[in-house]
UniProtKB/TrEMBL annotation:
Name of the protein in question: non-specific serine/threonine protein kinase
Catalysed reaction, written as an equation: L-threonyl-[protein] + ATP = O-phospho-L-threonyl-[protein] + ADP + H(+); L-seryl-[protein] + ATP = O-phospho-L-seryl-[protein] + ADP + H(+)
InterPro entries, per database record: Kinase-like_dom_sf (IPR011009), Pan_app (IPR003609), Prot_kinase_dom (IPR000719), S-locus_recpt_kinase_C (IPR021820), Ser-Thr/Tyr_kinase_cat_dom (IPR001245), Ser/Thr_kinase_AS (IPR008271)
Organism: Castanea mollissima (Chinese chestnut)
Main localization, broad class: membrane
Compartments where located: Cell membrane
Amino acid sequence: MSLSMKECEQKCLRNCSCIAYTSANESEGGIGCLTWQGDLVDTRKFPDGGQDLYIHVDVVVLAQYAKENGLTQKKRMLAILGVSVAVMFLLIVSVVYCFVMKKNKETRHSIYSDSVDSTLPYFEDSPSRRDLDGTRRNSNSNSNLPLFNLRTIIAATENFSIANKLGQGGFGPVYKGLLQNGMEIAVKKLSKYSGQGIEQFKTEVALIAKLQHRNLVRILGCCIHKKEKMLIYEYLPNKSLDSFIFDETKRSCLDWGKRFEIICGISRGILYLHQDSRLRIIHRDLKASNVLLDNALNPKISDFGMARIVGGDQIEANTNCIVGTFGYMSPEYAMQGLFSIKSDVYSFGVLLLEIITGKRNSTYHHDGPSSNLIGHVWDLWREDNSMKIVDPLLDETYPAHEVSRCIQIGLLCVQEHATDRPTMSTVVFMLGNDTPLPSPKRPAFILKGTYSSTDRSTSAASNSINEITLSKIDGR
């Protein structure tokens, strides 16, 4: 690990078995030496970036042969140059050949074919009718979800142009599109290199197709072509809630009345998932970036790729694969893999407090015994000073009693023990009525050093940043 790149080169040149070398730590200026003997194993092709890999080729052998046989310097150079030109020529020919073969294959199997993976639920082969906007509706009575062909999506998004990119979700980019009939759509394009596979895609399609609620995002259809998987949603021009509440300019447009409407809308959406839909669904990744806003700033919960269906009378389950986002995950789920409807209640409580304060729970710091937002609100509430945490952009034009009540409801939702937290039906009742509230107990995750200030997500094997949720799904 202490060798420089020059020393690494010399070390490899002195070893006849060494066929390649590179820096062991490229990020720290090329310190450390990594060499190969035999096959080039454990290498990886990066779509972008990566680092240089120095490989011995036949030119070195030829140079050594020339030296041993007494060739002149000029002959040695000519031999090396000839071999280099030959290698380069063969390389170019190989690349051109592969490119031509690929183009021929794409011509034979048009990218615009309407083939659909028949293993998807509700998409069995059956007679179908084609709509004018390029979609196909399965006649199976179990589903009215249209299947968009790839030609339609490419035309709508202008071949997934950067100008139409709305953002980057946990499993890939999201693009704005415009259908021929004038309808605006949002296309969630599943990344080929993301953690979400066909099972997660099936989950999201099957779930959202069955869910109908004004506070849940509406799915218009899907597109499946070979390894390409896309979901087509209604287009919501105001994007996600986090782009408003964590931006001072946009947040100033949200008075208390609108924030309270958003809070109530989110609570009703979660209640529908937990209790009122045909399936009992635990979202498991409720956060500000997964709440979208329509033209009137009405909230719509989105991103059901991590959701779990449980039995109609089941309220909890456990898993070895922890998914979600730090700052929103309940303690029993983060530490034991035990998730329940109370896990979503915890996430809602965090989100409620973020809407009131305009601050992120995971990046908020205060010079007190508690490092995150929840801890600070708890400290102020115990001192009867919880109103100090209210977003100053509200400019005291809010009903103090109502805001204080919402803060207390948020603290009830983030209590450390799941049994102490209210259900979403109780939360909706408390938000809509002025009945007395119980006193909250100590919340979880309020001590310093619980987790880093960067908003992070977690999975069974990896971490990610920048609002991205990485995960591994286990079977239901």
